[in-house]
Amino acid sequence: MPTTLFVLVNAVINSFRLVDHVVVMTKGGPDNASALLLYYIYDVGFKFWDTGYAAALTMTLLAILASAAVVQFVVLEKRIHYQ
Predict the structure, then answer these.
(1) pTM as predicted
(2) Would you state the pLDDT for residue 73?
(3) DSSP 8-state secondary structure symbol assigned to residue 48
(4) For the chain, what are the domain ranges?
(5) How far are the Cα atoms of 34, 39, 75 from residue 43, in angstroms, in the given order?
(6) What b/e string do you get for 2-33 counting C-beta neighbours within 10 Å, with b at 16 or more?
(7) How many CB atoms lie within 10 A of CB 54?
């Protein structure tokens, strides 16, 4: 079960990092229908040169991922039994 917990936490974190496929295929799609948070941070930081807002968005993304990881550890830790 510890391996499952590790894989689950990494899968959630990597799902937020899946921005290159969207950029290559759709660049946000019609009317930003497939735009992701990381792609939006990239646009704000490098297209509009608003680095302060991009840094704040990055910290928000970090807080979301950290809280998701903590929730996964708390929920799945009850099921892990070391022998």
Answers:
(1) 0.79
(2) 84
(3) S
(4) 2-77
(5) 14, 6, 35
(6) eeebeebbeeeeeeeeebeebeeeeeeeeeee
(7) 19
